[in-house]
């Protein structure tokens, strides 16, 4: 099993910044490949905000490009999301995802954190 634990989040005014962290652990049989942040606002579907591979390739939603930066510490299986110039429409629950390859079964599994609330006020 892989545990995914998030930290960060909170309430911030528009134009402010926040940093989210996410660590994946319990990986003795697993190799963590891509990790990412997804977000879900009330009444909407969960969407990708940013993702990063263990090789450092990144992907961003168009709505966050230029404002959010995802980074990774492979040694710690930890990712960070630096969010700048936050807007009220960034308000959502942010979920961390880890794609873990199980070397015994030869397949990849998705693991999710419990979610952390980000609220951006006007």
Topology:
Layout: E1 3-7, E2 10-13, E3 18-25, E4 30-40, E5 47-52, E6 58-60, E7 68-73, E8 78-83, E9 92-102, E10 107-112, E11 116-121
Parallel strand pairs: 2-11
Antiparallel strand pairs: 1-3, 3-8, 4-5, 4-9, 5-6, 7-8, 9-10, 9-11
Number of helices: 0
The description of the largest β-sheet is:
7 strands, mixed
Low-confidence stretches: none
Query: What percent strand?
Result: over 45%
What helical percentage do the residues reach?
under 10%
Q: What is the SS-derived class? A: mainly beta
Distance from N terminus to C terminus (CA atoms, Å) equals 41 Å
- Find the count of extended strands (DSSP E, 2+ residues): 11
Order of helices and strands: EEEEEEEEEEE
Principal-axes geometry comes out as elongated
**Rounded to an integer, what's the Rg over CA atoms?**
14 Å
Please tell me the overall pLDDT.
96
Offer a few descriptive terms:
122 residues, mainly beta, 7-stranded mixed beta sheet, 4-stranded antiparallel beta sheet, elongated
Walk me through this protein's architecture.
- The protein has 122 residues and is mainly beta.
- It contains no helices and eleven strands.
- Strands 2, 4, 5, 6, 9, 10 and 11 form a seven-stranded mixed sheet that branches. A four-stranded antiparallel sheet has the order 1-3-8-7, with no helix packed on it.
- A hairpin with a 5-residue loop joins strand 5 and strand 6.
- It is elongated and about 50 Å long.
- The termini are far apart.
- The model has no long low-confidence stretch (mean pLDDT 96).
């Amino acid at each position: 099993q892989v545990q995914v634990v998030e930290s960060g989040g909170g309430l911030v005014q528009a134009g402010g910044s926040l940093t989210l962290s996410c660590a994946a652990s319990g990986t003795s049989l697993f190799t963590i490949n891509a990790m990412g942040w997804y977000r879900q606002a009330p009444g909407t579907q969960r969407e990708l905000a940013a993702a990063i591979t263990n090789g450092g390739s990144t992907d961003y939603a168009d709505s966050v490009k230029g404002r959010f930066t995802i980074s990774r510490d492979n040694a710690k299986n930890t990712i960070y999301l630096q969010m700048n110039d936050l807007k009220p429409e960034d308000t959502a629950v942010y979920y961390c995802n880890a794609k873990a390859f199980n070397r015994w079964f030869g397949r990849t599994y998705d693991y999710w954190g419990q979610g952390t609330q980000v609220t951006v006020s006007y």
